[in-house]
Each structure stands twice: as C-alpha cells, then as structure tokens.
Amino acid sequence: MKPANVLLPILISLVLSACGGSSGSDAEPPQPSETNDSSSDSTQEEADSTASEETPEPSEPTAPPKPSEPVVSFSAPSLLSANNAYWFSIFDIDTDGASDIIAPTMEGDQWTGYTYSVTAFSNLDGHGFNRATIADLEYGASWISLFEVPNKNSIGFFIPTGADCSIAYYQSNETDGFDGFASVPSISCGNRYVLGKDLNNDQVIDSISNAGHINIASNDGEFTTSHDLIGLTSGAALAISDLDKDGAGDAVTFDGDRTLAVFMGIGDGSFETANLYLAPDNGCFTSHGGLVVLRDVNGDENIDAVAADSCNIFSFLGNGDGTFSEPLKAISSSPVWSDYEVADINSDGVYDLILAEANQETSVTIYTGKGDGTFEHAAQVDTGAPDAMQVGAADLNNDGLLDVIASHGYHNTIGIALQTDSDSGL
Ligand SMILES: [Ca+2]
Ligand SMILES: [Ca+2]
Ligand SMILES: [Ca+2]
Ligand SMILES: [Ca+2]
Predict the structure, then answer these.
(1) Polar residues: which segments have biased composition (predicted)?
(2) Backbone angles phi, psi at 286, to 5 degrees
(3) Are 362 and 376 in contact (CB under 8 A)?
(4) Which tens digit of pLDDT belongs to each residue from 70-124?
(5) What's the rounded Cα separation, in Å, for the pair 289 and 285?
(6) Cα torsion angle, 174, 178, 180, 181, sign
(7) This prediction's pTM
(8) What angle separates helix 2-23 from helix 34-54, to the nearest 10 degrees?
(9) Alpha carbons 405 and 239: distance in angstroms, whole number
(10) SS3 state of residue 253
(11) Whole-number Å distance between alpha carbons of 55 and 221
C-alpha cells in the first residue's frame, strides 16, 4: 500500500504533463510546469467570470435587422375558376404522380337556392388543369382533407354535414366520382377539422375531429363512437403526428384561448388525457380561433407545433417524447392570418412559413425558416386576388420547386403562383 501512495503523486504529475504536452502546439517546446498551465487556465476562467459579472445582462448582441431580400420568386399567378371555394386539399386524386387541387364549391344564390359539390382540378402535368365535379354534397363543406383508403384502391374524405352535426364519409368509386359511403355519428356540433386516420392499426380509416370525438370504423364501414379526447377545452384546430415515434399517432389541438393540448395516442384508438401548454397573451384584439401545424421546424428530428391564436404565431419545440418547450414567437409581426402552411419553399432543408392574410391585396407572404423555430420575412406572393383564405404548397409543374396555391373564396377563384428559379433568372 505504501509504495502505491508514494507513487501516486508521481503518476498524477506524469498524466498532467502528458495532457499539457498534447494540448500544446507541436512546434512549441513542451511547457515544463503544469502548475503554470493550470494557473493560467484558472486565471482565464476568473477573467471570464469577472467579465460576465461586470456586465449584469450579457444579452446576446442583437444584430441589426437585415433588409428583407426576396430569396424566392414566383411567376405571375394563374387562376382557377371555383365558386365560393374557401378551402381545398392537395392530393394526387388520379394517381398520375402530379398533385391535384380538390375544393368544395357552391353554386346558386339565395333566391334559387344553393347546390354544393366537390370540384377537382386535375393537374395536366403542369400544363393547366381539368375541372370536374367529383361529388355532390348535401351540405356545404367548411373544410376538406382527402386520404388513401388502405387495401381498397380508393380515396376518401369526411365532410361535417352541419344539419345534425354528423359527419359524412365519401369514398371514391370506379368512375372517378365519390359516393356517400357511411355516416359517422358525432356527440356534439363544432366539427370542422375531421381527419381520416387509421388510429388502431387495423388498416381501416377511423375519424377524429376537433370537437374531440374519435370514431373507430370496422371493415364494413360501420363507425362507432368509442373515445373522446379527454381534457380538450375547445379544439379550434387539430393535427396528428407521431410525436414520440412509438408508431401511434398523437393528436394536438390549439384554440383561440392559446392552449396547446397534446393527446398521446395509445394505439388502440384511444388517447391519454391532455397535457396542456399555454402560449403568452400578446394582446389579440379579436379572437377567431386557432391553427396548429406539426413539423420539425428546427431540424432536430423531433416534431414541433407551429400554432397561432388570432394575431400571434408561436413555435412550441418538441422534445421527442410528446412534451414541448415554452413557446417562441415564430415571427416578429402579429398578422391577422387566415391560414398558413409550413413547408420548405426555398429547398434549403429548413421549413418555411407561408402565411395567408385576409383583407390584404397581396395576401400571401413567405417567411423563411431560420432553423430555430423562428421565421423571417422573405417575399410577398401574388396569387391573383386579395383575401386568401387557405394556402398550400406543392410542386405543381414537377420542376422540383414548391409552388404556392391560395383559395380566394370571396373572389370565386383559386390562385396558383409557380416558383421560378431565381438563380437562373427564369
Ligand atoms: Ca405516438
Ligand atoms: Ca423539432
Ligand atoms: Ca426553407
Ligand atoms: Ca414547381
């Protein structure tokens, strides 16, 4: 034991001098005394800590705001005629590899009455669109989202019917049309976002709505109300993604009261009681609901939530386990948005924000993502009309660049702005 005790200080000094030698530059002679090294290190640390103590609020140097230079550019808009088309879905409805635009439309007036239908604008590979009515609806639709029906070579969508608060399920038939396929019960009204997802992994599409009702479907098209979202206050908007990567979709709602509610999916169609996150009250004048989009905006492979109350957009960064950090203000301004999409519009690998504002002449704005959950103003996009209600992004002409689509329901048109390659000046 004693020899070891005697050897220990020598061993330590050998190790220390070896470390000192390896950290020094090769050209310099090794510093003989580790004592000098350590004292200079501690001096440096003291100097650092003294410096930070002397400046009580070492706020990061705020760079002066850069002038906003457009990093993306778009061609003059082309317009699709679509009566009262406020909402649309982008979906390859004819499975030819090109994205099509599908919108609920409304014809007529208050004297003759209204007829409601779903209109498809089939993309002719970037050379215009074919317009066709694909479904007749009993009631107007406030939203539409299409999905593939597993194992049936078919496409479906849900429409809240309005009258008895039930939800109609339409499925495509063999002749490119859609027929009413099933009626989905709903406990209360207020369904707007009705998503079709296979929630219990039996290869049959189930429905989940922002009113909090989950209807599990059997293979023969029978829907039963089997679960509710517990802890939902008022779900103004709903989105689903697998936040904790366990294979079960998780549901997120955000409402005009700035509450992000996170429901972790069990995998059998039911969800855990909500975890709630509150965004700060930044003083919206009015409340017109909320919106939530789930994307990985900071590139850490964890899904984040970009959520908005009436005049603020927040990024809640996800931790990958279903929890979220405190919200950041996603953009510095406080827009009166009507919709937004989060997509990588400038192809730099970072998600960007495409914002639609009502009551604006040129109403679509691109904010490029900075990779930390915040976005900065980059360009206005002319989609051919004011008052954009919904925006979307898809590569419509198959050139690798995302294009912008905006519905202008008050102006009976859907505007398309193709992105141009700003480098080549085309
Ligand atoms: Ca999950
Ligand atoms: Ca993330
Ligand atoms: Ca981007
Ligand atoms: Ca394109």
Answers:
(1) 33-42
(2) -125, 165
(3) no
(4) 578 999 999 999 999 999 999 999 999 999 999 999 999 889 999 999 999 999 9
(5) 12
(6) positive
(7) 0.81
(8) 60
(9) 20
(10) strand
(11) 67
C-beta separation of 214 from 227 below 8 A:
yes
Give the helix/strand (H/E) hosting 259: strand 259-263
346 Cα–ligand 3 center, Å: 5
* 3-state percent helix, strand, coil for the chain, nearest multiple of 5: 10, 40, 50
pLDDT digits (tens, 9 = 90+) for 29-56: 334 333 333 333 333 333 343 333 444 4
Which residues are found with C-beta within 5 Å of the ion, ligand 2?
296, 298, 300, 302, 304
In 3D, which of 233, 244, 214 has the Cα closest to residue 290?
233
What order of strands is seen across the sheet that includes strand 223-228? 194-197, 206-209, 213-217, 223-228
Q: Identify the CA nearest to 324 among candidates 388, 384, 276.
A: 276
Contact call for residues 162 and 140 (beta carbons, < 8 A):
yes
Measured from the alpha carbon of residue 367, the closest ligand is 3
* Structural tokens at position 415: 């505007």
According to DSSP, the residues that pair with 130 across neighbouring strands are 122
Distance between Cα 50 and ligand 2 center (Å): 36
CA dihedral over 334, 352, 243, 167, signed as positive or negative: positive
Q: Tell me how far apart the terminal alpha carbons of the chain are, to the nearest angstrom.
A: 81
Distance 92 CA to ligand 3 centre (A): 23
Residue 277 to residue 269: CA distance in whole angstroms: 23
Gap between the Cα atoms of 189 and 192, Å rounded: 9
What one-character DSSP code corresponds to residue 321?
S
| Rg of the chain on CA atoms, in Å | 28
